[in-house]
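WARN  no MSA supplied for this record, continuing single-sequence
INFO  ligand: 1-deoxynojirimycin
INFO  echoing inputs
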Amino acid sequence: MGKFIDELMEKMTIEEKIGQLNLVTAGEATTGSVVSTDVESKIKAGNIGGIFSMTSPSRIRKAQELAVNQSRLKIPIIFGMDVIHGYKTIFPIPLGLAATWDMNLIQKTARVAATEASADGLNWTFSPMVDISRDARWGRISEGSGEDTYLSSRIAKEMVLGYQGDDLSKNNTLMACVKHFALYGAAESGRDYNTTDMSLHRMYNEYLPPYKAALDAGAMSVMTSFNDINGVPASANHWLLTDLLRKDWKFNGLVVTDYTAVNELIDHGLGDLQKVSELSLKAGVDMDMVGEGFLTTLKKSLDEGKVSEEEINRACRYVLEAKYRLGLFEDPFKYCDEDRAKKELLTPAHLKLAREAAGKSFVLLKNVNHTLPLKKQGTVAVIGPLANTGANMPGTWSVSADLENTQSLVEGMRSVLGDKVDIVTHLGANLTDDPALQERSTMFGRTIPRDNRSFEAIIAEALEVSKNAEVIVAALGESSEMSGESSSLTDLNIPESQKRLLEALVKTGKPVVLVLFAGRPLTLTWEQEHVPAILNVWFGGTETGKAVADVLFGDVNPSGKLPATFPQNVGQLPMYYSQKNTGRPLAKSAWFQKFRSNYLDVSNEPLYPFGFGLSYTEFEYSPLKLEKATINKSDKLRITVQVKNNGQYNGEEVVQLYIQDLVASQTRPVKELKGFQKVWIEKGKSKTVAFEISEEDLKFYNQKLDFISEPGKFKVYIGTNSRDVQEAEFELID
Ligand code: NOJ
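INFO  complex generated
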């Protein structure tokens, strides 16, 4: 590769090199071409390195032809897109996928996404998003794997392996792009794009590992984030992009900015377009997404001695290497196979996987009196603004989804249940009382019809429709665009309009099942107290409706576990289980003690802890068995626990292992996830689940940022969630 690129770069003018750093959208295509006339002339002039959000082999072929037939050096273009949780076959939103805790499955979903997207002409995806988030006000918590460092790191790896496979140059793989580097999920106040200010200690121990895990798995590109980090925005942050990423982590792939992030440095207050482009290039950015700051100013900066030719060469080389790795120099049209596009999208196998993934992502939050599963008989009323909207099922960041042809919840349920169950349905309530908020929350074709009559009239009609039903399924919560980018919220309750409906449904005395759509943890204290069954379904993707039917009617036993803490109220945020103890912790049984760390008005407990999720069956954990009480640094400690399925259904359980370092040279979290296993256990049967702990699991970054372990006592906890655990102690000795 080196020689090929050296020779190519020798032929390139400085303008052509800068052209490679330019990633553009196709622009509104005018007559005759697949790109705008402006883009067409830039391709011919060698001023474009990549295009994003253009799909279909025929269009991509035409654009590629412009590059390889009409530009001087015939350098192919790279084609990227946001393939986040599926391409045409849409899987659950990433937070939902994380709730499956099923690594194999997650890798398979990324594999399918890569197969479909590459069949449609693409070779680069802007995924995985691995930003840790502990503040559910931030709408983009939906796009990541939640609050936990270990779980997110495991998932990051699987996603990369799924996208890139074992050979990036194959025509059915995509180059992964880990984003948003870095710390985007720690935006102050949960407001999107907001500042992040964080100690290095927290950064290294809690926020950076998932990005590193994606790179260790081989991710060949990185996207810089929009946010400010300790005074220097990520897209101009030399420490982040060069000292950490290139020098410490030895990353040798491509660094691209987020959308117009270079230009946004102007509003961050770093200077004019020429200045911020210079800063960004020098910091370590290779490719400028959409803003054309690089294209329009770098030559001038070079002439004025503000940037060097070496800096431009470095960036250009990384872009060309990415193209080389994808095999584009060998065959620029390798992703342009019309036949594949016809055969490999939305296949029955892909849809089957989507249905399985959705069913596994659902988290059963409450189920009293065996309300669930339901019997396949009689009449079921499915009521609520999320009942009849196919367009909202894929969830946020599913730009390539076919919204028109996605089944709604009711359609999906009907297709599974056939004549066995009579499903009646009604809107029941508007998504929110505020039409303007509804409009902001249903953008990009995810419309939900509004009924402009009084809420009393709408509810009365819904009750009339439900009159003969034995059970009511309340399909409530968020619309898909209530989470995702630029969708932060300060109120995490189910909107008032829907709450009134839910109250009225509960009042009927019929069993009510809340099927909750959500892109983030919501605050559900009223619901937890009053509704007999709550199934959190996030946004399950293309097969949501069928998968909900599978779970509600017992063909699938729910096994999802929360990848993020659900608070009691928004005032508890940011909230996460792996907190520090403080010098004044609360006594275990108390919820308020004067001069202790707590609130006057609400306990410190979450509503549902991290890792929580019920099943139709019950799992019982035996006390832990440790093979020994001490380990040295080269030892492994084997820990076993017996898990018994004591209930009436076969089912899967996610057995979770947490560690606590009891005494250390610096404060350590009260618990940290360090292992988990998802096991299938038949009713009445037991399984012994074994874990091994080694020194590696006990390490942390100290104040000097050395990754070390310290001898001393540790606790190990194993259980069904981060709260309900069995515990034991062991010691690490030198
Ligand atoms: C902005 C988003 O922050 C990022 O996640 C996405 O990949 C780009 N836009 C491109 O669409």
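Residues 103-119 form the longest helix (17 residues).
INFO  checksum written, moving to next record
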